[in-house]
Amino acid sequence: MTLSPTVPSPEPIAIVGIGCRLPGGIGSPQAFWDLLREGRDGITDVPASRWDLGQHFDADPLKP
User: Fold this and answer.
1) How many CB atoms within 10 Å of residue 13?
2) What is the pLDDT of residues 11-62, one digit of tens each?
3) Burial, 8: exposed, middle or buried (Cβ in 10 Å; 0-12, 13-18, 19+)?
4) By CB neighbour count within 10 A (0-12 exposed, 13-18 middle, 19+ buried), where does 35 fall?
5) Computed from CA positions of residues 14, 17, 21, 25, in that sequence, does the dihedral angle turn out positive or negative?
6) DSSP bridge partners of 14
């Protein structure tokens, strides 16, 4: 499937750089590509220093 823009851009656009900081120690576009290519799982638990899970989670799915 090919998508075409609804409004043409008046000027060309170039992506000149990219940065990454993702779970699993992914810190570069190459590391991200390697993760995808190798089919590895990049999902990790949020560190306790960033998120207090006890305040936002209850094992009872009916509890708000």
Assistant:
1) 5
2) 888 878 888 888 878 999 899 999 999 999 888 888 888 888 888 888 898 9
3) exposed
4) middle
5) positive
6) none
